[in-house]
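Holo model, tryptophan. Inputs:
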Amino acid sequence: MKTVFSGVQPTNKLTIGNYLGAMKNWVDYHKDYRAIFSVVDLHSLTSKISPEERKRNSFEIVTLYIALGLDPAKNIIYYQSDVKEHSELAWILNCYAYMGELSRMTQFKDKSTGQENVNLGLFAYPVLMASDILLYQTNIVPVGEDQTQHLELTRDIAIRFNNLYGDIFQIPEKLTPKLTARIKGLQNPEKKMSKSSEEPNDSVFILDSPELITKKIKRAVTDSEGSVYYDVEKKPGVSNLLTIYAGVTKKTIEEATKDFEGANYGTFKKIVCEALIEDLSPIQKEFEKLIKDEAYIKEVLIKNSEKASAIAKETIYKVKEAVGLPVR
Ligand code: TRP
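Output:
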């Protein structure tokens, strides 16, 4: 069985961009793949967030995964830091990654330019990500467009390592769902909807109340034309709302556009809003129920990290043996 792996950093609350661009598609993977979803808490150490926030976000994300419909008996849901092999492989692969290629990573450039907190971890971040992926002999990695370069690097490192030592790593492929991959900010529809946007009305979070969602959608930037159709260049705001609508209703953009023939922006926004709230509300209800059962979530985490460790150990064994480190 092939493996699918993805990770989310617990640096903030999850947005509908995370949900529609990624997680909504995750629930079915286990039917065809060994499905592994990690809360990459070690990655989050590269950002300045408080320990309490890190802890809280991590726990919420796992709970949200389950609330979204990821069955923890069929999907391996765990904390990255619970599986020591991530750090171990990251160190080894650091020695096979070049300063030059890491310097070219646009995410590093974006996060480091003009910043005070340019730590070594931020620079090595993509190697830790490569380790996450390669540790489980991953075949496919569902991630957003912004992770393309990191995935390319992962492949380069894996190929380089295999060329030196034989068939150690599976070479992973990226998978980006077509339509819903890129949800943009409501206030800045030219840019990706971000978990950490400074503008409070730019992102809708999965756990936002219906009132808050309504307020944010009402304020979403559109244009002065007044008719609803899809054109990212000319109408980024309207196109983004159409994409959100298509995502939650599982319609194509064409079908979605048809639903708004002759509608004005007020009506359009109202319907988008209702569809979004309807889609999120069962998830939110389930979340509220689950989050109270801390013991259950903890047990899921322990069981699943054991499953993950068992796979990770096999890869680490091969890697250590290949480079001449002791194995027992
Ligand atoms: N860098 C990814 C992001 O910011 C998160 C991530 C870490 C990841 N390790 C991963 C995603 C492995 C996929 C696979 O979105």
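The pocket of tryptophan is lined by residues 5-7, 9, 40, 43, 129, 132-133, 141, 143, 147, 150 (CB under 6 Å). The mean pLDDT is 94.
Archived with the compound record.
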